[in-house]
Specification:
This protein has about 200 residues and is mainly α. The protein is about 65% helix and about 0% strand. One of its GO terms (cellular component) is plasma membrane.
């Protein structure tokens, strides 16, 4: 049996350093860009996404309609549960990345939301928003675009308001997509016309 080529740990460390540097550079590019028309709206969006309030509100509206909308709401809420639990109980505790540093002389302090005490990686807000959109969309296709855009906006708002690095948001989106896939698979989803839910 031929020997497997061994990976050079120095190359892996160098790659991680490069990715961290890119992440930092992207974050700093956002922090120094003057966007007064976006600051207030994104700050409010970021706060409204706390504890998935927006997604739960949408789920409540969908649940009022029998059939596919109600089934989509059930799957969406289940996906939020999986994504939030995975992000907060596993991801944040395993990685323990520090939140971005806010300079005292930040040029745009009005865009910030309170800094959470939890670890930075991954973004739980993004994970939950993406999980909800990714679980609802296949069952209720008309909701795919608006919920997808909302999830993207929530993710960006977490960078814009100074509480996450871009890498945290990307990881949250990947986690949310996986959570939705797991929920859809667990409910034996096999197309937009047939969804079996409890």
């Amino acid at each position: 049996m031929p020997d497997r080529p061994q990976r050079d740990p120095r190359a892996s460390r160098a790659l991680l350093r490069d990715l961290a540097a890119l992440d930092q550079a992207l974050y700093e590019a956002v922090t120094v860009t003057d966007t007064p028309t976006l600051d207030h709206a994104l700050r409010r969006l970021s706060a409204a996404a706390d504890h998935s309030k927006i997604s739960f509100a949408v789920a409540g509206l969908l649940a009022l309609c029998p059939g596919r909308p109600r089934r989509a709401a059930v799957l969406g809420v289940a996906a939020i549960g999986v994504a939030s639990t995975t992000a907060n109980l596993l991801g944040k505790r395993l990685v323990r990345r520090r939140r971005p540093h806010r300079a005292e002389d930040s040029p745009f302090p009005g865009r910030h939301v309170p800094m959470p005490k939890s670890a930075s990686f991954p973004s739980g807000h993004t994970a939950s928003a993406v999980a909800f959109a990714a679980a609802v969309g296949p069952v209720l296709p008309v909701a795919t675009l608006p919920l997808g855009l909302l999830a993207c906006a929530v993710g960006y708002s977490r960078i814009h308001t100074g509480v996450h690095y871009p890498g945290d948001v990307i990881a949250g989106a990947v986690l949310g997509t996986g959570a939705a896939a797991a929920v859809l698979a667990a409910r034996n989803w096999d197309g937009p016309h047939r969804t079996r839910c409890p």
